[in-house]
Amino acid sequence: MNSRVFITDGHWRKSLAAVRALGTKGIQVTVGESTCLATALFSRYCNHAVVYPSPFSRPLAFLDFLHRELSRHSYQMILPMEDETLELISRHHSDFSRLTYLPIVSFQKLHLARCKDKILRLADTLGIPTPKTWFINELSELNSLKKGLPYPVVIKPKISSGAVGISYPKNPGELVDRYLRIHEHFPFPMIQEYIPSEGPGYGASFLMDERGAVKASFVHKRIREYPVSGGASTLRKSVKHNEIRELALTLLKSLDWFGVAMVEFKIDPRDGLPKLMEINPRFWGSLSLAVAAGVNFPYLLYRMSQGENFKPIEDYQTEKKCRWLLPGDILHFIDNPHRSRLLSEFFHFWDANTTYDILSTRDPLPALARCLTPLTFIYNQDMKLRLRKRRLLQSTQT
Fold it and tell me: Is residue 49 located within the same domain as residue 181?
């Protein structure tokens, strides 16, 4: 029986979570990244590390490398972890699916799920609550719109991940200035009403088989995030929330989904309704919490690849917490104007009910690698390009 899996994008903590989730089950894992100094490559559960051409700057070379790797060696499954690799591989779905089990949807379905504007319009037809959104087709529309908006509002790209390209203008002048700057990189972004920060965020995660049946589901609640104004969660906990689960499932079923996805909601404190934020049509940053709580999505995918028919995994430990300390939660603490309120529990590192995305006494080297990864921005051209692009996009947000 083939027990080898190839995981891309070893720099990211979700990739580390997948490596650990499979490795602890005795599955051999090969991890790839465009630099040798990447977090998941240092895990004790990484059996083989490969450095491949950058999917950002050398996409064709990356595809050639991956095709050769999967042709020369027998892999049971490949898990593309980031948007760029996922998109590239999905564009060549038929080629790669002949070489190994490829648990992702077609490029057309993936692209639809990544388009926030199309997903919001679809959600409206399904009766799923969404924030009020203004879609701009011509820049001249800003002049007639800017004075009537309920500030602050949110400028949000139609396609992006994390907090990249998102801004929160507080008046008409800021709206026009920031919109035009974001428009240069993300054409015609959306404008949304701002959901007050008192409303907590939730993520509903699913694994669905080729027939669209649910094989696993999981819900988590965000507790802290970075940037503080809205970004990746730095502390979250496992919860049950049936309404959010059902809304998310309705949306994914309408997309005829296959594989994993996480649907994000935010509770609007003004009316108590969960409002749809977006779909992450891939593995999500807080994957380690689901695994720690008892829903091992990567291993369940592996079981699917073996043709195993197992009962849906719906039960898991609630109130389990998981923390992205390095550097996420530390940056949250530094940036939070109300950090004094966190003092009583922020430095409580040894809570038995809390696990960590990266820190692990059983697998310590990834934490060291994470501390050293800033060095890649010195010698690695691909990482330099990513950092330069991120800084440029962040400059459009203020």
Answer: no
Q: What confidence score (pLDDT) does residue 299 get?
A: 98
* Residue 350 DSSP label: T
pLDDT tens digits, one per residue of 182-228 = 999 999 999 999 999 899 999 999 999 999 999 999 999 999 999 88
Tell whether omega for the bond before 327 is within 30 degrees of 0, i.e. cis: yes
Dist. CA 92–CA 83, nearest whole Å: 15
Number of domains in the chain: 3
CATH classification of the domain holding 289: 3.30.470.20
Instruction: Quickly list DSSP for 40-84.
Output: GGGSTT--EEEE---TTT-HHHHHHHHHHHHHHS--SEEE--SHH
Q: What is the pLDDT of residues 242-261, one digit of tens each?
A: 999 999 999 999 999 999 99
C-alpha closest to that of 193 among 292, 308, 277: 277
Within this chain, do residues 231 and 287 fall inside the same structural domain, yes or no? Answer: yes
3-state secondary structure of 101: strand
Q: Which residue has the higher pLDDT, 386 or 69?
A: 69
Instruction: Work out the burial of residue 26: count CB atoms within 10 Å of its CB; fewer than 13 is exposed, 13-18 middle, 19 or more buried.
Output: exposed
pLDDT tens readout for residues 145-158: 999 999 999 999 99
Q: How far apart are CA 174 and CA 181, in angstroms?
A: 11
* Angle formed at CA 225 by CA 221 and CA 230, multiple of 5 degrees: 100
The band of 354, judged by pLDDT with boundaries at 50, 70 and 90, is very high
Reference 3, options 37, 34, 48; nearest CA is 48
Nearest to 178 by CA among 225, 140, 231, 142: 142
Task: Measure Cα distances from 314 to 179, 225, 239 in Å.
Answer: 42, 26, 12
d(CA 194, CA 192): 6
In whole angstroms, give the CA distance from residue 366 to residue 41.
8
- In angstroms, the CA 260 to CA 282 distance is 6
Q: Are 81 and 18 in contact (CB under 8 A)?
A: yes
Average pLDDT, the chain: 94
Instruction: State the first-to-last Cα distance of the chain, in angstroms, to the nearest integer.
Output: 54
In this prediction, residue 69 carries a pLDDT of: 98
Kindly state whether residue 289 falls inside one of the protein's structural domains: yes
Residue 143 belongs to a domain with what CATH number? 3.30.1490.20
Give the residue from 83, 85, 79, 70 showing the smallest Cα distance to 104.
Answer: 79
